Amino acid sequence: MGIKTTADGLARKYGTRDPFAISEEMGFIVVLAPLVQMRGFQQCAKRRRFIYINGDLDEQQQRIVCAHELAHHLLHRGLNRIFMDHSTEIVTQKFENEANRFAVCLLYSDDDLQPFLSHSIEKAAEYMGVNYALAEYRMEQVVPELWAMDWP
Predict the structure, then answer these.
(1) Contact (CB, 8 A) for 84 and 90
(2) Cα–Cα distance, 9 to 128 (Å, whole number)
(3) What is the pLDDT of residues 78-108, one digit of tens each?
(4) Cα(66)–Cα(125) distance, rounded to whole angstroms?
């Protein structure tokens, strides 16, 4: 199953694209804290699941981080990035890219992004609060609405 399909399925299952509401429904405890040099991470402790988000980020960035951490839970369960970075030769950027892609697919539906099909990627990136490459990826996934023509 693809990243967009998984994100859309999650939004459909919980009836929202709000990552905080989804996290709560999934049993996560979301903690906003001043994280030094870190945007967020997730942790399992004593069978409880936590998502920590840097409280110094603005609300849009906190939503992106929360969705990103949900992606790690759904797509990369059981992987420990810190361990992989320090103790293996595994390149973890692939997992980070997947989590970022999932986040923008979860947060922004095709309907939300329809108006940006006629604008630049820069405008879409600014709207979503992400970099150009991530906005370009998401905009490539948007299925344009077909306008029915009224025939006289």
Answers:
(1) yes
(2) 20
(3) 655 554 444 555 556 788 899 999 999 999 9
(4) 18
For 20-46, the pLDDT digits (tens) are: 999 999 999 999 999 988 899 888 888
Helix axes 132-141, 93-107, angle to 10 degrees: 60
CA dist., res. 132 & res. 137, Å (int) = 9
| Residue among 66, 61, 69 at smallest CA distance from 130 | 61
Token pair of 62, please? 């906190």
**Cβ partners under 8 Å of residue 14, min gap 6:** 21, 22, 25
For CA atoms 76, 82, 85, 88, the dihedral sign is negative
Q: Give 94-148 pLDDT, tens digit per residue.
A: 888 999 999 999 999 999 999 999 999 999 999 999 999 999 999 999 988 765 3
Which spans in the chain are helix H? Answer: 3-14, 19-25, 59-75, 81-87, 93-107, 110-113, 121-128, 132-141
Q: Got the DSSP string for 82-119?
A: HHHHHHS---THHHHHHHHHHHHHHHS-HHHHGGGGGS
Residue pair 132/125 in contact (Cβ under 8 Å)? The answer is yes
